[in-house]
Design goal:
6 helices, globular, mainly alpha
């Protein structure tokens, strides 16, 4: 679990720095570029559709893990729009709360201990 947490910190740090540099150089105009690439039907658009699929699956997992409660829905929305920055932080905190129990980390406390 320690290696997983180190990976989460490394991924979060890389994404945070990279995102900060992109925002500093290009501003917050992500959506126009994102959907423009999809409309162009090229490889960047294919990547964006693929990435959106991963975001959708991670959001669905977050909502499911929290039994589709209001908090779970809020986490799912944050996960979808926050991407890896959100998910790495979430998994780091959840891994600490689960005290290294992978089953609890993946399923949530109620499902893991039912």
């Amino acid at each position: 679990m320690a290696a997983f947490r180190v990976l989460l910190v490394v991924l979060f740090s890389c994404m945070f720095v990279y995102t900060a540099i992109v925002v500093a150089n290009h501003g917050f105009g992500l959506l126009g570029v994102f959907f423009g690439d999809i409309i162009a039907m090229g490889w960047p658009g294919q990547f964006n559709v693929d990435f959106s699929s991963y975001l959708t699956l991670s959001a669905l997992w977050l909502a499911w893990r929290h039994h589709f409660s209001p908090a779970g829905i809020a986490l799912a929305i944050a996960g979808f729009f926050g991407g890896a920055l959100f998910l790495t932080a979430y998994l780091f905190v959840a891994s600490l709360a689960a005290k290294g129990d992978v089953e609890e980390l993946l399923l949530g406390k109620a499902r893991a201990h039912s």
